[in-house]
């Protein structure tokens, strides 16, 4: 006791001020460190955009806005004719199909895991989903190439082509001949790759629904389906859309797996069973051997992907805002 | 303070001694040459103790690296023209050669059982010939059982020297190809799917029925793919053998090619295989690091003198002796030490 009181006695008003200022210093340092970390993101992003723009200037001067709707990609022509329509089309179509498959399946898995799944099955399924996220993309590419591709070409695609043959629009979309390497194959692989993003985020946000809300709904006689549809999903909508956005970002930019299985063809075909290419796949394959205008064109493609991703994500945010307004928040 | 001084001095000594020993040669470029170059580098390390650090990042990137002076030598499958060499102050010479073969996957057809010529090959790759029982293919192969199936064309998706040499050959043999597609490391393919790397094309051909593609001979052999015979410039049918690749090289006139600018496709000679690729080495005539530059020349000399066998084991074709002599003269004349 004596020692303690000694210490207290020694700690006069001077020390107190010192201690306080030390706290203050700590606070200020903390504030600036976090602020600088946050600002560094903007700086890095700005740096990337600026270097992309500088690299893309020659191609922008040469092709102008026609770059956006030119379908030809002929780097060896003299002068090179380059257009982004093929890769842009491939990027959007594969991502769209991937999301079409991954959103319902991903949310479905999440609902099953949180609402319906027996306790003992939760861990294995949850871990399996998370394992999907850990597989390197090249493995997906190889699997798509050696396993999924042949299955699709020999079994699934001929079946679809037969079913939709002769129906106006659908017939063209599912037109033959079946191919190992196609937009559809790539989209399917993308769907599997982005599944964990949607599922694990949905699972996390579903867990945040207050049990009392659900219990109340069950109490008034709601079925599980009604609880999910009218309580869980509206409550967690923002979180789900966040997961979907992350997944979409991955799908738009995924390179390695897609390069393996998309067929890397710059031609646009109405059929999703035809080979195509995406922006990132085109850059990855051609960049090392490119020079001059060709390289500048590839950098411009990269800039386009940047802009495309930005607009897609911004559009999604806007949609989210509208939804929230509607919900009266 | 004394202690600090000792540390600084020790550091300085260490730095100078490491630079004195760091005669490691750096190179970058062609992926085509990588397997044989790493084998040579291994043997050279054993003999001289000096390592060769080669990055196979593609010919175009190799040229860029040597232009930027970040490496001692660059390697490219498409030679630079004389005026370009002049501009950059480069010395260029051919290092090793290899054959490029068309490969097919047709049920019941074995390696060397069907014959193609340049014009037919170009028509297939341009999309004019779409079925295996097309009259043009039948005419070249009256005895083969060709199915009435659509041809799936497989090409390289990545820019590559193999593609450069292949499209160069098609341009030489088909006016249609030359005007529609032309030559280059990456071209506007009218039909087919693109696969990444030689191994990608080989894998695709192995998996896809009724397909055709082109790979380096080594890949065709190692993956047991069905390669075709070819009709050469002299109108003779030749099989894809080392002798046929070598014939194309020995018939080539290196002496009168400034900067060794010579593409070994569609060469004359009864025995010449029509599509042979060469990898060229690029070095600065006046290198920044003269010691490294000299060391690199020693390595290349070693490769020419003792590396022929290991090249052949990997299905490459070493440069003929008379060409090697010519190249060594170039070194002493052009590269300043």
Topology diagram in text:
The complex is a heterodimer of chains A (329) and B (337).
Chain A: H1 2-10, H2 13-63, H3 66-69, E1 73-74, E2 81-82, H4 85-116, H5 119-134, H6 137-164, H7 168-173, H8 183-206, H9 211-219, H10 224-253, H11 256-261, H12 279-286, H13 292-326
Antiparallel strand pairs in A: 1-2
Helix pairs in contact in A: 2-13, 4-8, 4-10, 4-12, 5-8, 6-8, 8-10, 9-10, 10-13, 12-13
Chain B: H1 2-21, E1 25-29, H2 34-48, E2 52-56, H3 59-67, E3 73-76, H4 82-88, E4 90-105, E5 115-117, H5 118-126, H6 135-140, E6 152-156, H7 161-173, H8 175-180, E7 193-195, H9 197-207, E8 211-216, H10 217-222, E9 226-227, E10 229-231, E11 237-238, H11 242-251, E12 276-284, H12 290-306, H13 308-313, E13 317-318, H14 321-334
Parallel strand pairs in B: 1-2, 1-3, 5-10, 6-7, 6-8
Antiparallel strand pairs in B: 3-12, 4-8, 4-9, 4-12, 4-13, 10-11
Short descriptors:
heterodimer, A: 329 residues, mainly alpha, 2 strands, 78% helix, globular, B: 337 residues, alpha/beta, ten-stranded mixed beta sheet, three-stranded mixed beta sheet, 13 strands
Structure description:
The complex is a heterodimer of chains A (329) and B (337). Chain A is mainly alpha-helical and 329 residues long. Chain A has 13 helices and 2 strands, in the order αααββαααααααααα. In chain A, helix 2 (13-63) packs across helix 13 (292-326) and helix 6 packs across helix 8 (183-206). The termini of chain A are far apart. The model of chain A has no long low-confidence stretch (mean pLDDT 89). Chain B contains 14 helices and 13 strands. In chain B, the strands form 2 sheets. In chain B, strands 1, 2, 3, 4, 6, 7, 8, 9, 12 and 13 form a 10-stranded mixed β-sheet that branches. Chain B has a 3-stranded mixed β-sheet with strand order 5-10-11. Residues 12-22 of chain B have low confidence and may be disordered. The A-B interface holds A 72-78, 81, 145-146, 149-150, 177, 179-181, 259-260, 263-266, 275, 277, 281, 285-291, 294 and B 57-61, 63-64, 150, 152, 157-160, 167, 181-189, 192-196, 200, 203-204, 207-208.
